[in-house]
Records
---
Amino acid sequence: MFVLSLRGSPRAKGNTSVLLSAFLDEVKSLGGRVSTLDVTQMNVMPCRGCGVCERKGFCPQDDDMQAAYPLLRKADLVVLATPIYFYGPTAQLKAFIDRSQALWSRKYALDLEDPGRKWRKGFLLAVGATKGKNLFDGTSLTAKYYFDAIGASFEGTLGYRQLEKVGDMAAHPTALVDAREKAKELSASFLNRKKVLFVCRENACRSQMAAAFARKMAGDRFEVESAGSAPAEKVNPMMETVMAEKGIDMAYLKPSAISDLPDGWHPNGVVSMGCEEACPSFPGAVTEDWDLPDPAKESLDFMRNVRDQVEKRVGHFISESGE
Ligand SMILES: Cc1cc2nc3c(=O)[nH]c(=O)nc-3n(C[C@H](O)[C@H](O)[C@H](O)COP(=O)(O)O)c2cc1C
């Protein structure tokens, strides 16, 4: 399980950070992987409303947001954490949220679906100083539409009032326990998944397609990774084209090596397809080899054919895996 948190408070030791740490500590203790983006330290320009993402599916602004999109795509759970500033999130976090319009565009303007969309979850942690009855309403609404844009179901808000000074959160009677409980609840469905690794030579076509189909079909039952024995520099654009024909969005993927797998990530099953003598072996993992040709230097039709074979085999693999 991979949890991405977006920390929106400029106070590194403030109330938001303390609340978020309790949540993430629980995730880690359950065996989840965690990555936090301190949004206040990132160079993220506000959205210019230029419309490029709606036509091309990418934001042309070259800043730290470009490294954030792939993380959002990898995450099982995304946590927004922010103090309330004028009944909304902080400006830094709002800029980050607005720049996710690029992901909204891929779904709603280009009609492409992120394979993780069905299973990804989103949650909001928020803190404010006043008693305001509607204190979290604006930010919760923003979160709701943000999570839809990035392909996540909005699972709700934990909001705490009357906390102002650094140190107030640590003294709260229930907040940190609540955050831990919520982390446990949101993690539960992700923790019991079988881990499966798809491997080919370059991790540019076959294993990427297999991972995407597996995530889309059964991301609730499988934690999926892919890798290559000799990773290419980028994924194959023809592969992206033929997957887009199926409505599947393969943006923001980069080929990776087996050594790039998360620390301690040990698959229950490994499916290899053409990595030959360099196929990895994982003690105890069930392995199988799919005889699929390398489509890298072939025609678009060849790529389509391999895509269809991969889809069929993944479907079979999932139904054979039962449960
Ligand atoms: C610019 C600014 C605007 C704020 N606006 C609100 C507000 O509208 N309502 C509120 O209850 N608290 C407001 N606060 C107070 C913070 O939400 C509160 O101090 C919170 O605990 C800060 O969290 P942090 O320690 O994580 O930074 C504001 C604080 C600042 C600096």
Note: Residues 9, 11, 14-16, 83-87, 127-130, 132, 135, 163-164, 166 surround flavin mononucleotide (CB under 6 Å).
---
Amino acid sequence: MRFGIIADIHANLEALTAVLDTLKRQEVDQIFCVGDIVGYNANPAECIELLKENGVISISGNHDRFTSGEIDAIIRKETRDVINFTRNALSTEQMDYIASLPEERYFEDIFLFVHGSPRHKDEYINSLQIARSNLQLLQRERPFVSVCFYGHTHLPYIISPNRIETDIHRSTSFELDPKFTYLINPGGVGQPRDQCPLASCAIFDVDRYVVHYFRVEYDIETTQGKIREAGIDHKIADRLSKGR
Ligand SMILES: [Fe+2]
């Protein structure tokens, strides 16, 4: 069994298409998405349809929840403007799809999918201390979980009690030790933030206990053109070529 993991698509159709092509060429059995299908970029409706066509199993991210109006947090104007753009771009069925996504999921009881962290759906795992306390929380409250896949930071990471893998800027593989609990971020599909503009995704090989990362080229200029054409803040287009 090999499953693909994607995160933070953020309505980037060119990046999502490239990543799905990569995962299909690798003949994965199933693809999971850990949230933030929409927000920032210009093709939310097309991305939702592509996920449905490919039978991707998803959870919600904070931008999906902003869009479906489930939460009323104070957020930046540029983000609010994109949410309004996204709401206008989606059909009723697509809005219903976004609203229907659960905040977390299990697969085979030992794999957990969350957007932010196991502790909270909106928490950023952006420090060693936060990572460690979440690993401890998993071991204490959900000891049956072997790997928790998360997103939200848009940074590819492997974290276990005795190991951290980061700066994953090219396609590469890591053998894991089934004795340990892991937090794994596949990196961002549609808005990578690790100074590498390539779209990111991962495959988990359950039998070999190996995680394969893929950094994938896509047509960034087309994505940027669509963002500018849609009237979305140009900074959101500019950041894509810098990977931040
Ligand atoms: Fe995100």
Note: Residues 8, 10, 36, 61, 63, 152, 154 surround fe (ii) ion (CB under 6 Å).
